Automatic annotation (TrEMBL):
The protein's name in its UniProt record: Uncharacterized protein
MF-aspect GO terms: tubulin binding
Domain of life, per lineage: Eukaryota
Keyword Coiled coil on entry: yes
Region (Disordered): 1-30
Organism encoding this protein: Reticulomyxa filosa
Bilayer-spanning residue ranges: none
GO CC list: ciliary basal body; intraciliary transport particle B
Coiled coil: 145-256, 284-318, 441-468
Ranges of compositional bias, category Polar residues: 1-21
């Protein structure tokens, strides 16, 4: 029966691990869907830009103002960013809903498993399973259910947060669309705008040439950085898989330790690994929390890098679109370069490259630290597993021995209780008989004293009567009476001797029984002390019973 209970608990734990792992995994189909969605969004953005261009060309009421053109460009970029954020929010909301459904299903399954486990525990607790292991297993099942409840609460909070962000971004989009569709433009403004677009296209061409000349020097460095980033991404995926495996192993070890922490607490304090005590459960939790914080920081840095690269890609796309459709932007870019020196741009590029190198170094350091931490955790887990195997075997052997000793102790205790009851009854009977004989002896002594007094009185009377010759008949009467009294006194003395002899034997027997009672009480205390320490043997119990029978 305990093996069935352990198998059921392991099955529920495996289900929990599978559900937890499937939530975090991303399949290739999902990635393909995301790529298609990005392509569709790209096409939609291109169509919108074409529509805006047609509106600018065909509308008669177009204003001739540089600031409004720049506002339109900013609005398009903001619109693109907001659309991407909206799509990300929708995708996150869908994932959160999916996770919530999966967690609710697993909650129902765990509750059903918990009810089944409780029924098994109630059936087995009276006969087989000890109270301590039953309490531990129930606590572990309750702990898993509480963990799932906390995760469901977190998922609900995240869903609320995602809905709020989605509403805010939707409001921003509506405001941007209202701004884009609000203004009307005249023919003069439209012609001036076209001239400005041509100038800007010329300026953009010049800027692109300068950018190409600057980037040619940086192409080699960028290729190296791209290779490093690719290698780092591969290493990151490998390390994340290892960390997941380590987390699964840690969960298995924690469940095993929960079953055996009560029994092995004293032995774990005595154990030493490399001159120090092994980590307790609290220390292990703190260590895992620190690992999760480091992982969270690493993910934040990675998200920032992805966001920056995404923004750079958006800017490059906008540049390419404007370059392909506006030839006069080159002149506008030359005009802007005259106003703003290229030295500042070069400084910015140098600072960006330095920041990128620092970020790459920090990435390498974090990955190395994570790999070292993973190796340490694996080594410590292996050591603990190797240490726990012989202890578990010893624990099982000790447990079997303890159960056998407990059975023997109960059997001998029953025999001892029955013998003790019989001896106590006999002692009570002997005590009552001794009290009765003592009372009889005291009564006989009183009778003897009275008869002796009567004899003395009658002897005096006989002496007085014998001195008188006239009273011979009285003398014969008194002689007969004295003869009767002497016979009676002899008989009473014989009875007194018998009673005294019997009293001596009864007192000796009473002393024997008192000594036997003291011995039995002392041996009972010794047996109780030994059973408390767990060092009783068969021979001691047998000796106790033999001594009690002899005495």
């Amino acid at each position: 029966m305990p093996s069935d209970q352990q198998q059921l608990f392991k099955e529920t734990h495996q289900k929990y691990q599978q559900t937890f792992s499937t939530k975090n995994e991303t399949t290739t189909t999902e990635l393909k869907k995301e790529i298609k969605q990005m392509q569709n969004e790209k096409e939609q953005l291109e169509n919108r830009l074409n529509k805006m261009q047609l509106k600018i060309e065909n509308d008669k009421n177009v204003t001739n103002n540089k600031e409004k053109f720049q506002q339109i460009l900013e609005l398009t970029s903001n619109l693109r960013v907001s659309q991407e954020e909206e799509s990300n929010l929708l995708r996150n909301a869908y994932d959160q809903r999916k996770k919530h459904r999966m967690s609710s299903k697993t909650m129902h399954e765990l509750q059903s498993d918990k009810s089944a486990l409780e029924e098994i525990f109630n059936e087995i607790s009276e006969h087989v399973i000890p109270n301590e292991t039953n309490a531990i297993s129930e606590d572990s099942a309750q702990h898993l259910i509480e963990m799932w409840k906390e995760k469901n609460m977190q998922n609900e909070k995240e869903l609320e947060h995602v809905h709020n962000e989605y509403k805010e971004h939707h409001k921003m989009l509506q405001e941007l669309l209202n701004i884009t569709h609000s203004d009307t433009k005249t023919d003069n403004e439209l012609s001036s705008l076209r001239n400005e677009i041509n100038e800007l296209s010329h300026e953009i061409g010049d800027l692109e040439n300068q950018r190409d000349s600057l980037l040619q020097a940086l192409d080699s460095k960028l290729a190296i950085y791209k290779k490093r980033a690719f290698d780092m991404a591969k290493n990151k995926t490998v390390l994340l898989n290892k960390i997941k495996q380590i987390q699964d192993e840690i969960k298995d070890v924690r469940t095993e330790i929960m079953f055996r922490c009560v029994v092995f607490k004293d032995e774990m304090d005595k154990m030493h690994i490399n001159g120090r005590r092994p980590m307790s459960e609290k220390e292990m939790k703190e260590y895992l929390v620190s690992l999760q914080e480091k992982k969270h920081k690493y993910e934040q840095c990675q998200n920032n890098l992805q966001r920056q690269s995404h923004e750079i890609g958006i800017l490059e796309r906008t540049e390419e679109i404007l370059k392909s459709r506006h030839e006069n932007l080159q002149q506008y870019i030359e005009y802007k370069e005259k106003e703003e020196s290229l030295a500042e741009q070069q400084k910015q590029l140098v600072s960006i490259s330095a920041m990128k190198s620092e970020i790459d170094q920090s990435k390498g350091m974090t990955l190395n630290s994570l790999s070292e931490v993973a190796k340490r955790v694996n080594a410590e887990l292996q050591l603990r597993k190797n240490k726990l195997v012989p202890l578990i075997k010893q624990f099982r052997i000790k447990r079997e021995e303890f159960e056998e000793l407990q059975k023997e102790y109960k059997d001998k205790k029953q025999i001892y209780d029955t013998i003790k009851m019989t001896y106590e009854k006999e002692l009570q009977q002997l005590q009552t008989s001794i009290d009765e004989t003592g009372h009889d002896i005291s009564m006989l002594n009183q009778d003897i004293n009275q008869t002796q007094k009567q004899l003395k009185d009658k002897k005096e009377l006989l002496a007085n009567i014998s001195s008188d010759e006239k009273c011979k008949e009285y003398k014969t009467i008194y002689e007969n009476d004295t003869a009767k009294l002497l016979q009676k006194s002899k008989r009473l003395r014989q009875e007194q001797k018998i009673v005294i002899e019997k009293q001596g034997k009864d007192e000796i027997q009473k002393e024997y029984f008192n000594r036997a009672k003291q011995l039995m009480q002392i041996k009972l205390e010794i047996l109780e002390a030994k059973t408390q320490t767990g060092t009783t043997t068969n021979e001691n119990g047998a000796d106790c019973m033999i001594i009690a029978g002899q005495e």
